[in-house]
Each structure stands twice: as structure tokens, then as C-alpha cells.
Design goal:
This protein is 9% helix and 53% strand. The chain starts with a helix and ends with a strand. The chain has one domain. A 15-stranded mixed β-sheet has the order 8-7-6-5-4-3-2-1-15-14-13-12-11-10-9. It has three helices and 15 strands. The chain is mainly beta and 285 residues long. A hairpin with a 2-residue loop joins β3 and β4.
Amino acid sequence: MTRVAIAGAIAAGLLSCALALAATPKSRSAPARGFAATLSWEDGRTEISDYVGITFRRGQPCSTRARLVIGTVNLFSETLAESDEGPIPGRTLEALKASFLADDSAGGDSHHEMASIVLDRTTLTPRKETAARIESAGIRFVRVGPKKGRLTHEDWSSRDADREQPVTWPGNDRPHVWTDALPVTLRAWAAAGSVTTAQDVYLLPSPNAGLSPGAAAQAAPATISAADGGDVSVPAGRFATRRFVVTTGRASDTLWFDRASPHALLRLHTAAGTRLELQKTTRAR
């Protein structure tokens, strides 16, 4: 086997490993490494990254500000509620909690959304997600998590009837990936090298994707491709990057991560029309 072929095989294995870590318990899993396991998360500080850009709504560009907040929390194993008392041996598990907030406005109309997802720090398995959208048309709140032994999508809306239904996956032959976990789970492998590779997955949509409750609870086949992203300039500076392209059907989202630790998300382009770039990132208590 040539060196190029060996490098390609190694990169493919790393990406496969990364996507397995973003999976639900029924799909492949592996020990967490890199970003999730670093001692930098032991100091109790929270990483706060601010983004600026635009979001196209009904064909109109809307000025957008967003924030990604990542920190450690302790969850009760049975209920997945956060422990106010910190870790309790035998009762809690350590998790990374990532909260994404975005606000945009244009022509007197405004739109606010938030998604908060918690992932087991050992495996990077998503445990639950809550999300909310507030706009002139109404309010929607969604919870995705275990209920009565199965992964359930619960939807409450000021416009539609409340709905509760199981999350469905096309199969177990590919990693099960949650869209809103990608800004966290892909970071650990952003420095996997410059060889281009791809992995087929089943992708669960973001609760804030604007889909009907039925469609939002159904994962779809997708492909995640990784490649060298080159040098990218954003308001926070100029960085060497690793680029991931997430393709579902004819739609693609692209995420650029800093190659240097801790591999912050630098730029995000979505098929839905969002364009965000990192303005600054800090660590705070």
C-alpha cells in the first residue's frame, strides 16, 4: 500500500470514529478523545464564542448575531436533569453542554432561536436536546430525548397541536448523527489531516430547521465529507482550517474549524441561508 493510500485509510478511520462518537447508543461508539477529554474543561470555565453574519428569510438578508456556549455539567443518570450539587458518585454522569443562540432581524421583524444539547463527555453520545423558536408567527418548543425506553420527539407550538412521536432512523448500518451536535463532535477531529474522505451517516434534523414535527423526527441518509479547508479569514483573525461538508439530498451545510486546539468553529454556511463567522471566543466562569 502506498503512503497516500495509507494516509487516506487513516483519515477515513478517524472520520468514521468521529461520527460514531456523535451517535445514539444503538449505533457504533468509541471512547472519547481530543476535545472532549482535554483537561482544559476541568477548570470549570465555559467557552463562549460570538458570531456575526446574515440569514436569508423569504429571500431577504437579515443581520444575524449568534453565540455558542460550551461547558461541563453533571446530569442525573436516570432523569438527565442537571445536578445543582455537582457530581454525585453512582448517580450522575459528566456531560458537555452546548447551547447555540441566534437572533436576526430585518424590516421590523425579528427571529430568535436557541438549541441546547448535552453529550456524554466519555463517549460524546447526545443524551437530549431542547430547542425553541420565537418569531412573529408564534412560539415553538421541542424536546428530543429518552422517554419510556425510546428516543422521543416532543413538540409544543402556539400555532399547531402538540405532538409526541418516536424518533425514527432508517437503519443501524450507519452512525446516527444529530445535526445540532456537529459543532461539538466534529471539533475533536478537525486536525485529522489534509486527506479528503467521506462517511455515510443517518442525520437527525435540527429542531429549529423549520420542518413539520413529523419530518423533524425522521433522520435521513447523509454524507459528511472532510478535507483541508485552507487558510480562512474571519473577524477573529486568520486561521488554518479543516472543512466538513454535510450533504443531505441536494442540500449541503459547510463548517470550518480551526486546526489548532481546541478547534473552534470558525465559519458556518447552511443550505437554509445562514452565513456566520467567528467574531471572538473567550473562556469565562
